[in-house]
TrEMBL record:
Organism: Mytilus coruscus
Homology family: Belongs to the GMC oxidoreductase family.
Any single Pfam family the record assigns to this protein: GMC_oxred_C
Alphabetized InterPro entries for the sequence: FAD/NAD-bd_sf (IPR036188), GMC_OxRdtase (IPR012132), GMC_OxRdtase_N (IPR000172), GMC_OxRtase_C (IPR007867)
Domain called Glucose-methanol-choline oxidoreductase N-terminal: residue spans: 1-91
Molecular function GO terms recorded: flavin adenine dinucleotide binding; oxidoreductase activity, acting on CH-OH group of donors
Signal peptide start-end: none
Domain Glucose-methanol-choline oxidoreductase C-terminal, first and last residues per copy: 163-306
The protein, known as: Glucose-methanol-choline oxidoreductase C-terminal domain-containing protein
UniProt keyword terms in alphabetical order: FAD, Flavoprotein
Cofactors (names): FAD
């Protein structure tokens, strides 16, 4: 599991009482058991939590990337520390143990979006397309690209962290076990495409750096008959065509039950994660409550939300010592 909290600005952007970066950081610290030697003593990290974090080994070319970043004027950073812009190796967790003895009534587990619909608290059959519900990219078939790849290739994945495109959901039927009709509405906002084209240009810039040229690196052009072959190669129109055909999801859907105030028509839960539209004693505590998607994998933020929810439900404060720890930080 990749452990990325996201940018501090993500949480401040939520503009929701109790959920600023300063207020959620203690819960991230509670989670951690940092094992990376040069981060163990950082005030942005902690030890003793239930999630051991080690440095991931995603590439055999770390020195090459470090030289590339230096040439381009960036710096090496701790993505979960003070500065989030630069090159970094992910912290991650490589093993999980699930306790089968944990009690749970699986017959009562319903997707929260369906709970909203079938409780009768949602007006009409649809979640409107302008509510801010966020889905990431569309899936696409990658077999051809995988078939062409071999051991001497590397892949760079540009990712759009904050899409402007917004999706919608509709009920398929009155049967609560029927899957809803989901329209992610990917790339419906042209700005999303422009940003991805800019990312492609950044990748091209990387391949022209001295470290990559010393390796003899070249871009692997993949042509598909009948797909974008009428567009001028390397033009913005060409890349837009490829992006619209081959952009894929990052599998981190969020924001379908957004946190917010009672006067906010786009929100579903209040700042205490209580479902305030007709059902008492119901809380939602997962990635769906995010007001905006965070900058990176949503795994760690979702665990943070669950930890904070546990305190809210029990009326406890289990992060007092971590709040004291972050007083020295510039937040």
């Amino acid at each position: 599991m990749i452990y990325v909290r996201g940018s501090r600005h993500d949480y401040d952007r939520w503009e929701t009482e109790g959920w600023s970066y300063k207020e959620v950081l203690p819960y991230f610290l509670k989670i951690e058991d940092m094992k990376i030697a040069d981060l163990v003593n950082s005030a942005y990290h902690s030890t003793g939590g239930y999630l051991p974090l080690t440095r991931t080994k995603a590439t055999s070319l770390p020195n090459v990337y470090e030289r590339v970043v230096e040439e381009l004027g960036y710096k090496t950073v701790d993505v979960n520390g003070e500065d989030h812009i630069g090159i970094f190796s992910f912290a991650g967790n490589e093993g999980h143990l699930f306790d089968k003895s944990t009690k749970g009534n699986h017959s009562l587990l319903y997707p929260d979006y369906q709970l909203q619909f079938y409780s009768g608290t949602s007006k009409g059959n649809d979640v409107p397309a302008n509510t801010g519900l966020t889905f990431n990219f569309n899936e696409s078939v990658l077999e051809e690209a995988a078939r062409r790849s071999d051991d001497n290739e590397i892949i760079i994945f540009p990712m759009l962290f904050h899409p402007k495109s917004i999706g919608s959901m509709k009920l398929k039927s009155k049967d609560p076990f029927d899957h809803p009709l989901i329209n992610p509405n990917y790339l419906s906002q042209q700005d999303d495409v422009y940003i991805l084209i800019e990312a492609v240009r950044k990748v091209q810039m990387i391949t022209q750096t001295k470290p990559f040229q010393e390796m003899g690196a070249t871009l692997n052009r993949l042509d598909y008959e009948g797909v974008c072959d009428r567009e001028e190669f390397d033009s913005d129109v060409y890349w837009e065509c490829l992006i619209r055909h081959y952009a894929v999801t990052a599998y981190h859907p969020t924001c379908t039950c957004r946190i917010g105030g009672t006067n906010d028509q786009t929100s579903v839960v209040d700042t205490k994660l209580s479902y305030f539209k007709g059902i008492r004693n119901l809380r939602i505590a997962d990635a769906s409550v995010m007001r905006h998607v965070t900058s990176g994998n949503t795994n760690a933020p979702t665990i943070m939300i669950a930890e904070k929810a546990a305190d809210l439900i029990r009326g406890k404060d289990t992060v007092i010592k971590y709040r004291k720890q972050i007083k020295q930080l510039r937040l």
